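Re: weekly structure request thread

Next one in the queue (163 aa):
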Amino acid sequence: MRRMPMIGLALALSLAACGSGHETASQTALQKRSDTLAIEQIEVNWHKASSTKDIDLMMSLWAEDATFTAGTTTYTGKAQIRDFFLTKAAPFKPENHWVSDTPEYKLRVTVDGDTGTLYFQCHYVDVATMELKNVVAADQDVARINGRWLITKSVASTAILSP
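Done, posted below.
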């Protein structure tokens, strides 16, 4: 039995994958939806990490050379960002027993190829008293790096409490 040369096989697979323009549009839409859900997962894991004080989970969300601005200070790289969360971030302080949540209607995601943006608010509620303790907005640039969506730039600010 004669084998098809590798170039012929690659060409056949390429032509089969092309399909009609309708399939390409569907595939593009499906990829965008998949990327949007993956970026939204950053927000989910952010809240899980801050609610459980899981610094390793928090740091898994960041690119190696990411920047994080809180107030007037910018932290560069995962080591500085990690130090911020461990020493300055109120949700990670041992005396605070807060649960972090975000109103779904305030979540915003954009995707443009391998880059995008993510905006959400963190509403921190004291577990014992059920009082709202802090509200912070996170405005982030994200990128697909080695197949994973990661934060490349984040700016924390006071959130506006409106729909």
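The CA atoms of residues 102 and 122 lie 5 Å apart. Residues 33-158 form a domain with the Nuclear Transport Factor 2; Chain: A, fold (CATH 3.10.450.50).
Next request, please.
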